[in-house]
Amino acid sequence: MNGLCCSMCAPGNRVYWHCFEDASTTCAPCPASTYTDEPNRLTTCLPCTVCEENQTLGVKKACTQSSNTVCGPLKGFYCINQNQKGSCRLALKHSTCSPGQYISETGTEFSDTVCDDCPTGSYSDGTLCKLHTKCESLGKTTVKAGTETSAECSNGDVIQ
């Protein structure tokens, strides 16, 4: 600074006065809702990130004087855009499986739900595959063959 080699302020602090010939740098703590996470020569601290208010992100770790807020996806969402320090910037809702499919991999904080088709002879509401009940095993005849969602027996009972 002005030809002098001034010391930097520690994380959580900012420059209050730059050094001059007879005095070293004077640092001051960052005020509320601001931070510095590295040694610095800043005269103002950085504003803490506010996690998106669009109901997809929440606070995983609150902002402190020496670290920024870490945002993460809310339950039912997964992160698709993360910064270098591990904070999520954008999250999407986990996919839901369609009737006739099952959840082969449950969605996580960083991955979407993976769906697969149920095998022939089974049905699903989009969660788990179950085998069709055979109408004959109930002493009835099949009126409508089993589909991905139901089957119909002789007295009009719709069974799964």
TrEMBL record:
Task: Say yes or no: keyword Disulfide bond present.
Answer: yes
InterPro entries, A to Z = TNFR/NGFR_Cys_rich_reg (IPR001368)
Limits of the TNFR-Cys domain = 29-71
What are the cysteine partners in each disulfide bond? C30-C45
**Which residue intervals correspond to the TNFR-Cys repeats?**
29-71
Q: Which UniProt keywords apply?
A: Disulfide bond
| Gene3D superfamilies on file | Tumor Necrosis Factor Receptor, subunit A, domain 2
Q: Does the keyword NAD apply?
A: no
Record's Gene Ontology CC terms?
external side of plasma membrane
Q: Which SUPFAM superfamilies match?
A: TNF receptor-like
Q: Which GO terms describe its biological process?
A: defense response to Gram-negative bacterium; defense response to Gram-positive bacterium; negative regulation of alpha-beta T cell proliferation; positive regulation of cytokine production involved in immune response; positive regulation of T cell migration
Listed name of the protein: TNFR-Cys domain-containing protein
